[in-house]
Amino acid sequence: MPAPLDRSAAWPYENGAPGPFSYARADHPTGVAAERRLGELDGGRALLFPSGMGAVTTVALTMLRPGRTIAVAAGSYYGTSVLFDHLAPWGLRWVEFDQTGPPPAGADLIWLEAPANPLLTMPDFAAAAAHPAPVVCDATVASPLRVKPLEQGCDVALHSATKVLAGHDDVLAGVATVSDDALFDALHLTRRLAGIVAGADAAWLLLRGLETLEVRLERQEATAHALAQRLAAHPAVETVRYPGFSFLLSFDVADGGAALRVERALRRIENATSLGGVRSKLESRHRWEGDRCPPGLLRLSVGLEDADVLWADLAQALAAA
Ligand code: PLP
């Protein structure tokens, strides 16, 4: 049976004292049901947030202090480093490093992405775990079915649940999972005090999406695999990045102009941002990331459509490159 959808913001005290649920900014039953399921998937204690960035913000505010430095994986999700820039007035600093090797000495928090969006490198987990600083791994592009950061020695596993976990492009959500009870309590406190809390509807939609996560991911991955091979053999494609699993790949055409022509020529694949949903999406990341990203890079998130239909659309769009 689906979890009950309880939209209450407050619940009556029991015999004059707060029961397990009293005010939804702390916890609510639908959120706790989603957290239980997410915790099982990641192998720890999960906290739900209203977006992936809500999870990133809560982790940063809880685990960092003014003057501390975050070592962020190069080529990882652009929005994360934009947020860290935005937090500079609060004394946070960040540096980029190549996550396929050891993090820089002196970093106070290591921020990995498995695999990185959109450059699709995988972190060296052993090198990160050997560093004295705590390690956060954003595994949005892998999902907990493919990478479990806590088992790899990380302190926090983080996901934008907006993506493949919910899977239908109809809800924003985020999750951070930890094994350490003190860290769980500290994150929960920041979330409650700051009100960075997902509502019951978001939790319910996420739970419904999780019911089909395994079959969606298997099919999206099989199609992504086939498309990566076909793209690699196409004369207009210079580089294909695909880590061998996941629904996400990126490839380069000659330059920024060619990338924009391919985008506009698409008929079936949506020319839109985001990833992990049931409908395939392609976009030039250069429009958001500037010089951080090759001008000809196109990021393709593979959905549930038929592989041949997707290839036909890509092939006709690449003719415009
Ligand atoms: N982490 C990764 C890897 C992402 O791709 C994104 C969004 O694209 C986020 C975090 C942020 O998630 P949200 O958009 O749910 O805030």
Automatic annotation (TrEMBL):
Q: Does the keyword Cell cycle apply?
A: no
One GO biological process this protein is involved in is: cysteine biosynthetic process via cystathionine
A Pfam family reported for this protein in Swiss-Prot or TrEMBL: Cys_Met_Meta_PP
Q: Which residues carry this modification: N6-(pyridoxal phosphate)lysine?
A: 163
Q: What's the domain of life for this entry?
A: Bacteria
Q: Which InterPro entries match?
A: Cys/Met-Metab_PyrdxlP-dep_enz, PyrdxlP-dep_Trfase, PyrdxlP-dep_Trfase_major, PyrdxlP-dep_Trfase_small
Q: Which GO terms label this protein's molecular function in UniProt?
A: cystathionine gamma-lyase activity; pyridoxal phosphate binding
| Cofactor(s) demanded | pyridoxal 5'-phosphate
GO cellular component annotations, sorted alphabetically? Answer: cytoplasm
Q: Which UniProt keywords apply?
A: Lyase, Pyridoxal phosphate
Q: Which SUPFAM superfamilies match?
A: PLP-dependent transferases
Q: Which family does it belong to?
A: Belongs to the trans-sulfuration enzymes family.
Please state what the protein is called: Cystathionine beta-lyase/cystathionine gamma-synthase
* Originating organism: Gaiella occulta
Taxonomy, top ranks, is: Bacteria, Bacillati, Actinomycetota, Thermoleophilia, Gaiellales
